[in-house]
Amino acid sequence: MSDILINNKFIEIEVLGLGRKRWRKDTCYLILADKTKNNLRMNVVIGRCDAQNIAIELEGLKPQLPLSHDLMKNIVEQLNAKLECVKIDKVIEGVFYAIISIKNQNGELLELESRLVDAIALAIRCKSRILLREEILKEYSVVMQ
To answer: What is the pLDDT of residue 38?
Structure first.
């Protein structure tokens, strides 16, 4: 995909789960789906540790001490802020980038650049929307029967 963005249209997606490559035990993938058209799926390759951080929350496990993403969620809450959404907004040389949008207690919107996996791990914990730029979905998704 080119680095030039055609439009600013975003589509809400959801995390369906995680998978693992059989031939590479250190590589996993995140399964994402368009919430409006459940037959569109997109797999994103992620590391095993990143997959574990997401899986802990998806499976409802509670570690004794907060993990990094739990700590980030706690910081947002303690500052009386709210995670509005995360936006997966670009792909450069096969790397997905995201924006974390946080509304502070004064109502100002703060946007922080992030790795896709950190943004998704935080969004899952905060129960926030995950948005994907439409042309990324078109470029990287497959239609499931």
So the answer is: 64
